[in-house]
Design goal:
The protein has a single domain, classed as Glycosidases (TIM Barrel, Alpha-Beta Barrel), CATH 3.20.20. Helices cover 37% and strands 16% of the residues. The chain has helices at 12-23, 47-50, 55-67, 94-104, 130-145, 163-176, 197-201, 213-220, 238-255, 282-293, 316-321, and strands at 40-44, 72-79, 109-117, 150-156, 183-188, 225-228, 261-267, 304-309. An 8-stranded parallel beta barrel has the order 1-2-3-4-5-6-7-8, surrounded by 6 helices. Helix 3 packs across helix 4 (94-104).
C-alpha cells in the first residue's frame, strides 16, 4: 500500500514550482460538507484477521466506525502469492472478525483487502499470466464464501491503460454475479497533478504513473467503488496538498459513472519521506475533499466520500477530525 512509485528527490522542487504556477490562477474557495449518505471507509490492518479476536478491541473499533458513520472497511487479509493464491493460514481469524463486525454493525460492509506488488514494479504477481488472474479471482471468491461482503483490490503499480488489470476486473465482475449484493472496490491512482504532468515528471521520477480519466472510467465499468490514493503526493505545503485532493475529487466525481462511488484517500500516518510531507494530514485531506465537493452538482455529492488510510496509525484526534 505504501508505494515506491513516488520516490521524489531533489528535482521535486522543480515540480512543486510548476504546481504552484499551474494552480495560482484557479483556486477553489468554497467548501461543501460530505453528504450524510456518502460512502465512508477505512483500510484496516492485518492483525484483525491474523490474531485471535479481542472482543474489547473490536468493541472500540466498532465504536469508532459507528461515530465516523463508516459504510465499508477494507480488511487486509494477506498478500497474494505469485499465482494469485492466498492460504487460509494467512488470515486464520478472518471469518471470526467478519462475524464480530456484522454483529456490532449490521449495515457495515466488510470487504477483503487483497493486494500484492505487480511484476512491473518488481513484485511477485504478474497479471499478464492468465493463471495468476484466475488465482486472484478464486482467492477473492473464497472470502465471499467466508462471510465477506465484497473484495477490495490493491495491486500496485498498475500503469495507465493496463489491459491485463482490466481483464482481472472483468473476470471478478463475472464472478460477483454468483454472489448477489457483493461489491468490488479498487484502490486507484490519482489523476495527473496538472495537464501534461506525466511527461514532465517522468524525466525526474520514471515511476510516476497517474491514471487518466479514461482509465478511471474503464476501471469503474467493473467496480462499485473507486478509492483514489490521494497521498504520497510529494506536496510540501498544506495548501498545495488540499488543492491536490480537491482536484482529484472534482475531476473524478464528474467523470465516473453515477453508479460508482468515489472515495478520496485520507492519510493519517505521521512520518517524513520524499513522497509524504507533513502537509498530508487528515485535516488537510478533509478540507481538500470539501473544496472539491463544493464544485460538484448537489445530486453527485451523495456518491462521493472518503477512505481513511489506515486504522493502525490513527489517533483519537484524527478519528475526530474525519469529515
Amino acid at each position: 500500500m505504501r508505494r515506491a512509485r513516488i520516490a521524489i528527490v531533489a528535482p521535486a522542487v522543480v515540480v512543486v514550482a510548476l504546481l504552484v504556477l499551474s494552480w495560482a490562477a484557479g483556486l477553489l474557495d468554497g467548501e461543501a460538507a460530505v453528504d450524510e449518505e456518502a460512502p465512508r471507509a477505512a483500510w484496516l490492518t492485518h492483525r484483525w484477521v491474523g490474531e485471535p479476536v479481542d472482543e474489547e478491541a473490536v468493541d472500540r473499533l466498532a465504536r469508532r466506525l459507528r461515530e465516523a458513520r463508516m459504510t465499508d472497511i477494507y480488511v487486509h487479509v494477506g498478500p497474494l502469492d505469485a499465482h494469485g493464491g492466498l492460504t487460509l493460514q494467512a488470515s486464520p481469524y478472518a471469518e471470526e472478525f467478519a462475524g464480530a463486525m456484522h454483529r456490532r454493525l449490521p449495515d457495515l460492509r466488510v470487504q477483503a483487502w487483497l493486494g500484492q506488488a505487480e511484476a512491473r514494479g518488481g513484485g511477485l504477481l504478474d497479471l499478464r499470466d492468465d493463471r495468476a488472474q484466475a488465482g486472484v479471482v478464486r482467492s477473492a471468491e473464497g472470502f465471499l464464501r467466508r462471510g465477506y461482503d465484497g473484495v477490495h483490490y490493491d495491486i500496485e503499480p498498475i500503469w495507465d491503460g493496463d489491459r491485463h488489470f482490466l481483464a482481472l476486473l472483468e473476470q471478478t465482475d463475472r464472478m460477483l454475479d454468483r454472489h448477489p449484493g457483493a461489491v468490488l472496490s479498487v484502490a486507484a491512482e490519482e489523476v495527473p497533478v496538472f495537464p501534461g504532468a506525466e511527461r514532465l515528471i517522468r524525466t525526474v521520477v520514471p515511476r510516476y504513473h497517474p491514471w487518466t480519466i479514461d482509465f478511471h472510467r474503464a476501471v469503474a465499468r467493473h467496480a462499485d467503488q473507486i478509492a483514489v490514493m490521494t497521498y504520497d503526493s510529494a506536496m510540501p505545503f498544506r495548501h498545495l496538498y488540499e488543492r491536490f485532493v480537491a482536484r482529484n475529487t472534482r475531476l473524478l466525481a464528474r467523470a465516473l459513472p453515477t453508479g460508482t462511488d468515489l472515495l478520496v484517500g485520507v492519510p493519517s500516518y505521521q512520518e517524513w519521506n520524499a513522497g509524504h510531507w507533513p502537509a498530508e494530514r487528515v485535516e488537510a485531506a478533509a478540507r481538500g475533499l470539501r473544496r472539491g465537493l463544493a464544485d460538484l452538482p448537489p445530486e453527485r455529492r451523495p456518491r462521493v466520500g472518503w477512505a481513511l488510510y489506515g486504522d493502525w496509525h490513527t489517533d483519537e484526534a484524527e478519528w475526530r477530525a474525519l469529515p
